[in-house]
Amino acid sequence: MKPILLASQSPRRKQLMELLPWEFKVYTKSVDEVIDETLSPECNVQELAKQKAQIVADQYCDNWVIGADTVVCYQGRIIGKPKDEIEAKEILRLLSGQTHQVYTGVALIHKKLQIIKTFYKETKVTMQILSEEEIQEYLDTKEPLDKAGAYGIQGYGARYISGIEGDYYNVMGLPVHELYTQLNQIVSLTHKK
């Protein structure tokens, strides 16, 4: 089997892919990540994951391509990466003491075999009540500035997460078990043909 192509620049997704038993390479092309307000978070992450994978699959027809996209959602509102520190502070205040959802959509595409499969996972995350000092202390690390929801569960943000319900790796950006299960089934089926 040719190496799987991971259509993501995320160092976290690359790290999580290394937990799987298949050879892979990172190959990305830029995609405008536009949230469609008329779609649910589940549909948005699957559609964006598919766009990311499709643009790479169009160039590499013989490889499996994996695309992924993650969003944070609170009270039906999708919260992306903050534009700046002011917006990051607003997001952290909003999530403080609340439970929100993290959705990751994954797309598996093999152009030559004409297979496109998408799925998503949802994880509920509860953040402790944050003081203004804690918010500023966290902002000073610069970690919130490039993360959906303005926090990283695998980094300094871990100290503020009081609980999760669901797949931890989904919050990091790649639901490892579900991806392993889905890819294992697809690879074994296509190799029997």
Question: Could you name the key traits of this structure?
Answer:
alpha/beta; Maf protein; seven-stranded mixed sheet; 193 residues; 25% strand
- How many domains? The number is 1
What is the number of beta strands?
7
Distance between the termini: 13 Å
- Please report the number of helical segments: 6
Compute the average pLDDT: 93
Q: What is the CATH topology?
A: Maf protein
CATH class: Alpha Beta
Assign the structural class, choosing from mainly alpha, mainly beta, alpha/beta, alpha+beta, or little secondary structure.
Answer: alpha/beta
What can be said about the biggest beta sheet? 7 strands, mixed
What is the CATH architecture assignment?
Alpha-Beta Complex
Gyration radius, to the nearest Å?
A: 17 Å
- The amount of helix comes to 25-40%
Order of helices and strands: EHEHEEHEEHEHH
Q: What general form does the structure show?
A: elongated
Q: How big a fraction of the residues is strand? A: 25-35%
Low-confidence parts lasting 5 or more residues at pLDDT below 50? Answer: none
Verbal overview:
- It is a single chain.
- With 193 residues, this protein is an alpha/beta fold.
- The protein has a single domain, classed as Maf protein (Alpha-Beta Complex), CATH 3.90.950.10.
- Helix content is 34%, strand content 25%.
- The protein has six helices and seven strands.
- The chain has helices spanning 11-17, 41-57, 85-95, 132-140, 168-172, 176-192, and strands spanning 4-6, 24-26, 65-74, 77-79, 99-110, 115-127, 161-165.
- Strands 1, 2, 3, 4, 5, 6 and 7 form a seven-stranded mixed β-sheet that branches.
- A hairpin with a 4-residue loop joins strand 5 (99-110) and strand 6 (115-127).
- Helix 3 (85-95) packs across helix 4.
- The protein is elongated and about 55 Å long.
- The two termini are 13 Å apart.
- The model has no long low-confidence stretch (mean pLDDT 93).
